[in-house]
Amino acid sequence: MAAKPEKESWNRYDVTNSPFLDVKTPFTSVEALKLVLMSPLILVRALLMILALLVLAIMSFIAGLGWPLEEPMPAWRRNLVTAGANCAGFIMLMLGFRMRVRGRENVAKAKELGALGVFNHTAWVDAVALMYLFAPSGVSKESNARLPLVGTCIRSFQNIYVSRASIENAKRQNGGPSIAEKIARRAKDRRFPMLVMAPEGTCGDGRCMLRFRTGAFVPGVPVLPICFRYNKRKINPAWTIINEGWHFLRMMSQIGNAVEVTVLPPYIPSEEERASPAVYAKNVQGLFCRALGIPAVDQSQEEFSALVKLGVKVSWDGRKVIAPPGIIDDKGFVNLSAALKKRD
């Protein structure tokens, strides 16, 4: 009998305080006025962003043309990639973002140590900012490489592409290195750009730190914590369960967006952390929480996917959480037992 309340508590999910359902920045009459006034400028900025993406795609294509991307690039190719990354800075400007960066001096030390970059994942804007600031490699879904235009833009950044099958079975299926081995090998090879990963595995609302997966910590190499803090007063740039097009339009209608990027000193794991990726991940998660002044929650991609499967989302005006009849009870809870995947 003692286990029953725990199981019921496990399945009862509080949608009011979910990091994937943001109702703290609603669409108000003031926001509507800004949208009307900014509409002509939004179109111009959107066209300029597309042009910047085209330029970045061309430079990326040339940089990688005829070169095996699993091999380190010669200097002229890498310099072309770095130059192309400035297009990402222009895109940030067109999105209306002012960036404040602290701790750049920690990057050089991290490269000397062969560290992995790890960052708190809040929005798709994170990737654009990282591209501009560091021109790094990433660990990305295989499907991203096939995205129109975007796939070409990121090609020369020499990402490690993974799928569910490659994560679980790569070594057994083809006798090649596991994803963790690829990550460790890449991190220690200074001929490649720095590799960055998002241990949370998905985006939250930025008001808490999601559960860290252990993938970035299995190799046992040092990590470089990169902290993103967005201005959320008018609209939260976080990529939660939203209508993406409407959210993008709202973000573009702001007079100014802001993001602060803080690069912390490299974190060198102890022997205990090298032996236990779970301990290493938890300790680095705590470091992010202290640096950003936010709590940690035991939620991740599983809860996000379960909510999407059940049809739980935020109303178009961002004022309330809605769902099909019978999904949310009168106390604002959802039973995730039928949709929540079993945790590892």
Automatic annotation (TrEMBL):
Domain Phospholipid/glycerol acyltransferase positions: 115-231
CDD domains in the record: LPLAT_LPCAT1-like
GO annotation terms (biological process): phospholipid biosynthetic process
Gene Ontology MF terms: O-acyltransferase activity
Membrane spanning residue stretches: 42-67, 79-101, 113-135
Highest rank taxon of the organism: Eukaryota
Single GO cellular component term: membrane
Keywords attached to this entry: Acyltransferase, Lipid biosynthesis, Lipid metabolism, Membrane, Phospholipid biosynthesis, Phospholipid metabolism, Transferase, Transmembrane, Transmembrane helix
Pathway as given in its UniProt record: Lipid metabolism
Location(s), subcellular: Membrane
Alphabetized PANTHER family for the sequence: ACYLTRANSFERASE, PHOSPHOLIPID ACYLTRANSFERASE
Family to which the UniProt record says this protein belongs: Belongs to the 1-acyl-sn-glycerol-3-phosphate acyltransferase family.
Protein name from the UniProt record: Phospholipid/glycerol acyltransferase domain-containing protein
Natural source organism: Coccomyxa viridis
Classification of source organism: Eukaryota, Viridiplantae, Chlorophyta, core chlorophytes, Trebouxiophyceae
